[in-house]
Amino acid sequence: MSELNPSTTNHIVTEQQIWDALRTVPDPELPAISVVDMGIVRHIEIDNEHTALRITITPTFAGCPALSQIQTTIRECLLNFASTVDVVVTMEQPWTSDMLSVEAQEKLRGVGIAPPPKLGRGPLLPMLMQQKLTCPYCGSQQTSLENAFGPTPCRAIAYCANCHQPFEQFKPI
Amino acid sequence: MSKMTDASGVPVQLRQPLSNFLLSLADDEFILGYWDSEWTGVAPMLEEDVACSSIAQDEIGHARLFYQEVAALTGVSPDHIAYGRKLEDYRQAQLVEHRRGNWAFTIARRFYYEMADQIRLASLQDSAYVPLAQAIAKIQREEVYHQMHIGTWLQRLARGTAEARQLLEQALQQLWPDALGLFEPFAAEALLLEAGILSRPSSALEQQWLTSIAPILGQFNLSLPLEPVPHNSQDNAAGEVFRSLVPARYGGRQGQHIADFADLWEQMTMVYRLDPQASW
């Protein structure tokens, strides 16, 4: 595909351009949120000739089935900027739900998923079990956790007794 | 003890023992994940369909991480490690080999396994093999949800109907020697301990496991072939020590497997054996 990109050799690629481009790459399981807002992009490296990019990402969950699809989508998107794009995966400093951007939290609410509470360095479980979840539809805290497991590894299922809506909770992890 | 930051930093004499150990971790998760995924669609309630599927997916994902580490050490592809081995080259404990059984059997097995896994993971978080320690840090956070899930269900069955309780007791008894088999010492364990890849011998992990499950089962009046060892005066500070009255069933870590696993192996490796190049 690189021969279709005459821009490759003529332009100097900046890191900012790459970040901006990655903001258009959606998470396949939560299309409202980009991989950047998801907090899974760790480093962007550009070689001296501006022809090769190396992007380091980290999975939200170790068994994330979308990971190889994310790698492919990032690669395809960035081939507009360089002739070689490597997308590598690291487990250094594991992803936590605190790495979701403020924008991501807003967008989650918009699609009916309550954002995770901030964890800090605290333990995980009390966050999900003891803290009242806020319904993303009506804002009520008359809610209950129905299942700590949901349609994807990162989501739990809850119910709002006020507006009678089931909703999802992005798990604190 | 020096840290090994990647596969190339592992001394030659440690490569085989390390990959063998990683295979044990991976195969335990892989095989248990396979069996538990069979609850998808047929679990006692819809929530458990979702939970079992999600937990199974996590476990198989963890296995993939460990297979990638083995791949880095051996140069064999992770897919080939997962599906291309002969039956006797798998290293899981026999506990995870039984087909899924009834719901109480699944819960009893998971209870034993999750409690052991928690202790095993904690013992590896400062491993001198850095990629392992990093993978563990990620996995530990996910396992918290599995532990919560199994704690809830153990209580539910133990305090549920007479039939639920009876089935749970039966399964706990039946699986006991296999559960102890999770702590079968690894090949060349002494080498791995000396290198700081493992922090504690399997026997110490087993004792820690016994000490952690005994009060939980005691709380529900569930008895096991287990007795406290009388203290001698110097040991008072060490807390209670337990001893099993029934011997452990070993062999899984050396490649001896039961018939249920042979059936599963046939099934799960079938496509790969037919066409190792297939992609989907």
SSE layout:
The complex is a heterodimer of chains A (173) and B (280).
Chain A: H1 7-10, H2 15-22, E1 26-27, E2 30-34, E3 41-46, E4 52-57, H3 67-78, E5 84-89, H4 102-110, E6 113-114, H5 125-129, E7 143-147, E8 155-160, E9 166-170
Parallel strand pairs in A: 4-5, 6-9
Antiparallel strand pairs in A: 1-2, 3-4, 7-8, 8-9
Chain B: H1 12-37, H2 46-74, H3 78-83, H4 103-124, H5 130-158, H6 162-180, H7 189-194, H8 202-219, E1 226-228, E2 242-244, H9 259-268, H10 270-274
Antiparallel strand pairs in B: 1-2
Protein name (chain A): Phenylacetate-CoA oxygenase subunit PaaJ
Domain MIP18 family-like (chain A): 15-80
Domain PaaD zinc beta ribbon (chain A): 130-171
Attribute tags:
heterodimer; A: alpha/beta; GMP Synthetase, Chain A, domain 3; 2 domains; four-stranded mixed beta sheet; three-stranded mixed beta sheet; elongated; B: 280 residues; mainly alpha; Ferritin; two-stranded antiparallel sheet; 61% helix; Phenylacetate-CoA oxygenase subunit PaaI (chain B); Ferritin-like (chain B); PaaA_PaaC (chain B)
Plain-language structure description:
The complex is a heterodimer of chains A (173) and B (280). Chain A has 173 residues and is α/β, with parallel strands linked by helices. Chain A folds into two domains: 2-89, 2-Layer Sandwich (GMP Synthetase, Chain A, domain 3), CATH 3.30.300; 100-170, no CATH class. Chain A contains five helices and nine strands. Chain A has a four-stranded mixed beta sheet with strand order 6-9-8-7. In chain A, strands 3-4-5 form a three-stranded mixed beta sheet, covered by helices on one side. A two-stranded antiparallel ribbon of chain A has the order 1-2. The longest helix of chain A has 12 residues, at 67-78. Chain A is elongated. By secondary structure, chain B is mainly alpha-helical. Chain B has a single domain, classed as Up-down Bundle (Ferritin). In chain B, α1 runs antiparallel to α2, α2 packs antiparallel against α5 (130-158) and α4 crosses α6 (162-180). The model of chain B has no long low-confidence stretch (mean pLDDT 94). The chains are: A alpha/beta (173), B mainly alpha (280). The interface between A and B is medium-sized, with 25 and 26 residues.
